[in-house]
Amino acid sequence: VSARAARIQSTEEMASQNSHLPRLLCLHGAGSSSAIFQIQIRKILQALRNEFRFVFVEAPFKSSPGPGMFPTFEQAGPFYRWHCDSSASSAFDITDSEIAAERRTVRQRLTKALLEDDGAPFVGIVAFSQGTRVATGFLLDWARKQGQQGSCSSLKLAVLFSGTYPPLPVSEDGVCMEEDIVASPSPGLMGDGIAAANEDDEDDEKGYASEPEAWSAVASTPSSRSSVYESGKSTPFSSRLTIPSVHVHGLQDPWLPEGRDLRLKHYDSARATAIEFQGGHHIPTAQKDINEIVRAIRGMFDSDGGRMC
Question: Is the pTM for the entire model greater than 0.85?
């Protein structure tokens, strides 16, 4: 814990020293926290410390630990999640009005963070797991609003680790794409899969969160795969973002198909860079992978046509 605190303090000091740098909004996964996410991407923070300032936002709802928390982050709680999607009311003990309230809370939190003026603009979003669903939903809604207003956003980069699908809408109407997707529970619904809610489960005692199978029991059943998503109501805006993006996929990630769906269905392939590594549902740590990610971030940020509208 002391080492963790030292790393967080170091990040805060680095932020104060680089307050003039463009900012990246950072969204952690479900069953995690902003402090843990700082540690998970520390090598990327270090490599880009003189180019960007990373601003971490805490999800608003407490959660059980998510995938990868045991044993490294077992004592690093509390853990948090983002909001549920619209399918949760049919599968879990939560109402549509409660889902709408959660969505409103997340929207207000992200909007407040982005509108905070400290002299440096936000130029992109960095997200992991459930955070990638939130980031994509938020970007789609942001693009819709900017298009309606006839102006452009300063956001010009998305960096997504271990993406999952479908996007989580943050708009008041609960829509974030051309076809409002209705799906069975998928990673990131309630803590990247709600299976962790049972604290008495045998898997909990042996550190179930480090084993994808424990989450896959409800999060990655065949009925939740992209091939069976049903089309809902249509909305008058594009479901594909033209913002430059970097997508990092672990080849052993049990939600790799969902991560690829997120990239292929909602990001312009001409401006999307896919990076695959030998690993699961986590952020890579091998230096060769870090180097490739850093090069991609620099290249995509500098690329032309990074506006969303």
Answer: no
- What is the Cα–Cα distance from 124 to 150, expressed in whole angstroms? 20
The predicted-structure confidence for 125-179, as pLDDT tens digits, reads as follows 999 999 999 999 999 988 877 765 544 468 889 999 999 999 998 887 766 654 4
Strands (E), the chain: 23-27, 53-57, 61-63, 79-81, 122-128, 158-161, 179-182, 230-234, 245-250, 272-277
Which amino acid, residue 115?
Answer: L
CA atoms within 13 A on the CB side of 276: 8
Give the Cα separation of 158 and 267 in Å (integer). Answer: 10
Q: How far is CA 66 from CA 76, 79, 200, 251, in A?
A: 12, 8, 16, 19
pLDDT (tens digit per residue) in 14-53: 555 678 899 999 999 999 999 999 999 999 999 999 999 9
